[in-house]
Q: What sequence folds into this?
């Protein structure tokens, strides 16, 4: 009696476009959650381990960032604040940059208005390197706005994945 070989059907490795988008949403959501967690832990570490000081604002300014190659009409603006404070028994003066650039100068000007010359702000500074400072020296919801924003984006991507699945 002759036996015929058993035919096996191989799974089709091709995915639909919806499945690929859902897969991308899952990975992007996971990466955003990791980034949000890392930013939150970093923020908590600064709030717990850095020293607090009362800083006097020396000046705040918006400046044009000079770049070698830039598109016509696109002017990148940034902002910085110079502060003076007592750290480890010594008077320290340092300049803190906004951390990003924008083509919208009024955004940078609005940020610098928070720091008028002569005003006093509660800051954090690194006791190991007193020149390293942070203008956000208190526990507040604003301290965690970046991690919260990334977490919200991750939740929205997760929700989008469930809708596609």
A:
């Amino acid at each position: 009696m002759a036996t015929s070989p058993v035919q096996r059907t191989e799974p089709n490795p091709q995915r639909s476009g919806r499945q690929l988008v859902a897969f991308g949403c899952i990975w992007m959501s996971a990466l955003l959650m990791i980034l949000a967690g890392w930013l939150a832990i970093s923020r908590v570490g600064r709030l717990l381990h850095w020293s607090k000081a009362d800083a006097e604002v020396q000046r705040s300014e918006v400046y044009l960032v000079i770049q070698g190659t830039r598109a016509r009409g696109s002017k990148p603006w940034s902002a910085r604040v110079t502060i003076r404070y007592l750290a480890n028994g010594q008077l320290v003066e340092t300049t803190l940059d906004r951390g990003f650039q924008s083509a919208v100068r009024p955004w940078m000007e609005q940020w610098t208005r928070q720091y008028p010359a002569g005003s006093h702000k509660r800051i954090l500074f690194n006791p190991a390197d007193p020149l390293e400072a942070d203008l956000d020296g208190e526990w507040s919801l604003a301290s965690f706005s970046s991690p919260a924003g990334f977490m919200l984006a991750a939740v929205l991507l997760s929700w989008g994945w469930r809708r596609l699945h």
Q: What stands out?
A: Residues 76 and 103 are 5 Å apart (CA to CA). The chain has a mean pLDDT of 83. Residues 17-49 form the longest helix (33 residues).
